[in-house]
Each structure stands twice: as C-alpha cells, then as structure tokens.
Amino acid sequence: MNLMKSVKRKVLLNPGPSTTTDTVKRAQVVPDICPREKEFAGLMKGLREDLVRIVHGDLEKYTSVLFCGSGTMNIDVVINSILPEGKKVLVVNNGAYSTRAVEICQYYHLPYIDLHFPVDMPPDLVEVEKVLQENPDIALVHTTHNETGTGILNPIREIGALAHKYEAVFSVDTTSTYAMRPIDIEKDNIDFCMASAQKGLMAFTGLSYVIGNREIIEKSKDYPKRSYYCNLYLQYDYFKRTGEMHFTPPVQTIYATLQALKEYWAEGEAAKWARHTRVFNAINNGLDKMGFRQVIKPEWRAGLVSSAIYPDDPNWSFEKVHDYCYERGFTIYPGKISTSNTFRLCALGAIDENDIKDFFVIFKEALAACGVITPVKYRD
Ligand SMILES: *Cc1c(COP(=O)(O)O)cnc(C)c1O
C-alpha cells in the first residue's frame, strides 16, 4: 500500500496552513482507535510536555492545554477565561489579529481598551505604560507577536515587562511565530502564549494549544465562567485529573503532530529558524529585484511574512497572478490591511530556498502573462 505516491507536493506561501512533509501527511493514516483507549491517552503527556519545551518553559511552572479547533480558539479561550470579575483587558493593537482579540472582548461583553497603533509601526511603549498607569483595573494585557496581516514583529518582552510592572497578566498570540522564531516564555515575560498545529509545527489544522502559567490557571478557577467549551480552567482541570482532553480530540491530527514534533526536534530550533530566515530572505530579494515595495520596514519585520504592495500597473490583477501560480503548484495570499492593497508571501512550512527560486520563475511568468511591466512601477 503506497498511499502517498499520488499526493503532489505544493508550495504554500500563505500564512498557514503550511506545506507539510510526506511523513507528517502519512502519520495521519492509522488504524481506527477510540481516543479513550489507554494507548491513545498515553500519547498526550509527551505531546503536552513537548509543546512547553518548544518555548523553553519549566514544566513545573508552565503547562499546555489542548483544544480541538483552529488557532483563533486559543485567543477566545485565554481572553474569556483569564479575566477576573470587574477587571479590564488591554489589547495592544497594530493589526488584524489583535483586532480579533478586541472582537472577542466585544462578543463576551468584557470591559476592554483597544489601544490602537498604525499597522506599519511597532506600538509606542510610552503610550502603553501611560494607559496601564491610568487604568489600574487592567488585569490582562494581550498582543500579537508577529502580526500575520502585515508581518510586523511586536516587542513582546518589553510589553510583557510593562504588564508585569502593573500587575497584569500578559498573553501573546504567538500563532505565527511558535516553533519558528525562537521564544523563551520566561525571558519574554509571557504568561500565556498559543499556537495551532498547522503553522510552525507544520502539521494540520484541528489541534490548538495554549501554553501558560499553571498558577494563574489555578487562580482562574474562581473567575466568571463565560464559555463552556472554551474555558481554560475546565480543560486544564480535566487534563490534570484524567490526562485527556475533555471532549473528543482530533485523533488523526494528533498523530500527525507527534510526527511533526519528532521532525521539529530532529531539525532543531536554531536550524529551523535559519531555514525560515533563508526562505524569508529569498522572498525579499525576489520582491526587491522585481521592484515591489513592502508595507513593513526591513528592521521591523518578524522574518516570516512579507507584505508587498500592489504595483500601479493597469494590468496587475492579484487574482490572475494567483491563479497562474496556483495552477503551477504555488499558493500566494491576499493581504489583510483595510487601507492598502497588498499580497503576502510567507516563509512558513517545510520549504527551502530552492522552492522560492522556483516560485519566482513562475511569478515572473505570471506577471509577463498579465502584461505587467517589471521592474514594477509605483506612481509616487
Ligand atoms: C493563523 C493565525 C491565527 C489563527 O487563525 P485560524 O484561522 O483560527 O487558525 C491566530 N493568530 C495569528 C497571529 C495567526 O497567524
């Protein structure tokens, strides 16, 4: 039986799900198993510990809590579970993913401050401190590490230090950096971070995890219960008592994630980050050579997402360029900025420099086929 022979390799340059290895794809094909069997439940402990180890967390102090859902579920879980009664959330917001956290506050009717900054700049820390000073009822500060909508890197260590100075808990959406750009949960002043198996770990959608401080989770036992399915303490407590997820886990995704973890440790944190960096540099060099402008200044980029601005050429059509590339095995992705037209090329997944070289051959063909003049032009 060779199940994989017919599966074509695709290069995904979208911001997750990412290109997976054949061994990770194949790991999903297992005999049917009831996840309540000891054989399956036994896999959970190592998996949960590995997820903490990736961010260098001390297993006594930090734990991971798994959920069956896509990455947004983690933001939902942390925000609705970790806020004590009568306290406020501060969202340090310079992009689409932090805006998602604001929307979660709105849906749960939680008191919040949406501290807005331009999407192409890091947040102003003086401003962040001022808001913390003026609002002693802020109990939870949340931001995004790599704003995937633009690719900007936020100064989480500094924001975390400020949160702690004013006795607030610090939660970071690390979905688009975890297991790629190295994170040290303790040194980075993080109380809660999160990710989803289809991004940095290069497995599949359906398994998401919050990694956080046990003591704070224990304390949240008495906080208002705002959701049944998405409550951090309930899921944590169930793990503690039984070692299992409260409700049916995504069995096949978990097998794939276990294989992805093996491959993560085999590649190694530094080598993996070096590979993503190689890919990212190749993307930027390719875009630069073709004259594309980007939204984020080089020194502020998180090293994983490039956000290029549409050229001022009447023949430019993102859809046409996308379709041309897609038919040839490369997936590019639209931007997520409401004020300008952009597309994204991302360095996630099991890809390397050569894939980017191959991509630019196709991408140039696509532009030529559309009649776009290169190097591309901008009006100003
Ligand atoms: C991908 C991503 C998410 C999760 O998105 P889903 O579509 O729910 O998986 C959350 N935050 C960031 C920063 C992301 O890049």
UniProtKB/TrEMBL annotation:
SUPFAM superfamilies: PLP-dependent transferases. It catalyses: (2-aminoethyl)phosphonate + pyruvate = phosphonoacetaldehyde + L-alanine. Pfam families: Aminotran_5 (PF00266). Its EC number is 2.6.1.37. Substrate binds at residue 344. GO terms for molecular function: 2-aminoethylphosphonate-pyruvate transaminase activity. Transmembrane segments: none annotated. Its cofactor is pyridoxal 5'-phosphate. Residues 35-309 form the Aminotransferase class V domain. Keywords: Aminotransferase, Pyridoxal phosphate, Pyruvate, Transferase. Homodimer. NCBIfam families: PhnW-AepZ. Involved in phosphonate degradation. Belongs to the class-V pyridoxal-phosphate-dependent aminotransferase family. PhnW subfamily. This is 2-aminoethylphosphonate--pyruvate transaminase. It comes from Selenomonas ruminantium. The lineage of its organism: Bacteria, Bacillati, Bacillota, Negativicutes, Selenomonadales.
